[in-house]
Amino acid sequence: MPMKSNKEINHKQRELSTEQREYNHHLLVRKTTRRDGHTYIGPEFDFINYLIRLEKLALTITDSDSLAVELSPNWRGNQRYRLTKLGRKIFLECRSYDEEVVNHYEHHRFNPYLTVMLKAMKQWAHELVVHTNRNGEPDVSQEYARDTLGKLLTFVRAEFRRPAFKDEVENYKRNEEKNIASCCKYMAAQFGRRTNLLILRIDFYFRPSSKGWGYTREADCQYGLMLRALREDRIVDDVLGYIGKREEGIDRGVHFHVLIVLDGHLHRDALNLTRAVGEYWVERCGKAEDGSHKSSYFNCYTRKDKYEYNCLGLVRPTDRSMMKGLRLAIEYMCKETSQLKPSPPKAQEGPEGAQEPLGKGIRNLRKGIMPKGHSGRGAPRSSGLDTSVIDRELLKKQ
Length: 398
Prior knowledge:
Layout lengths: L5 H10 L2 H12 L2 E4 L2 E4 L1 H20 L6 E5 L5 E5 L1 H12 L2 H6 L7 H19 L12 H18 L2 H31 L3 E10 L10 H15 L7 E11 L3 E11 L6 H16 L9 E5 L13 E3 L4 H15 L30 E3 L20 H8 L3
Antiparallel strand pairs: 1-2, 3-4, 5-7, 5-8, 5-9, 6-7, 6-10
């Protein structure tokens, strides 16, 4: 098969729709990182998967009183030490632990479970992996191997049982539940204004070459001004409200998830309206010194069919599937137990290296103004719509 020329490839790339280009970028940015002026593919993506497994292991340890090593008879009936199922999981994550990669992210603020697990891995993973038997497993017949596993497991469980740790986890859950309830009441109030809502969802990112800029006050200010422009109908018309969440990711750095509510009686074109918001974001953030755009976006409507419960497009309060999708979207945006705690924006260097003072009251979750005259749970309508349907579907935990 003849290979395509660069000219043919470039022509094909130009034919890609805006959404497809952004989706390709969305996939690439999850696998790329820039260090020392060079781009690498792989380590961050692998580290994300490692953190996911490590958090699952933390929950397994929390929910179980199992030991890492136990005595069991072999085929001859003699007692010998063996790794338990939990012990094997611990060893596998110790073997996958990469201290160099973890040290690169030591400035990140991880959630409580990951903070404890990474501390345990840093102290005991190397010691456990270096001394293995010919099968590549820890030689639990030796006391030092059993002792190492025991110390790791004892440390983790002791940390998880500390009152300060429990308080921190409870604070996470309490904030999450409070935010979910607040956002659900806010959305119920929107249905109190219009029976049909047009829901848009969009993710705002900073491109890899401008990832560091995304942590600055200037970048956060651009996000705030973009939300203000939404509220004042300067991007698209008839905006009723929005919910925006600022997050920090291992691979993407600072990014934003935004849910936008429009009057569904006046608008139906969710695809192009979302694109208009995304292009406004890209233009507002401007370009870097090399001429490339600092930011990008992902139009969630292009993947609406991938959601089991979808809330994108026209939503009516009587459509239970769409209402459930709206509730799940709110839960996702309000989650507090993500891998990283978002860091406050960094100060900018002023003239002669002077540091601009950091502002106070940085909010990671932002909502539009609650409609006047509404308690947040909707209002009776002359059309006869039962508002209890809205409350039941939105306020019900999925």
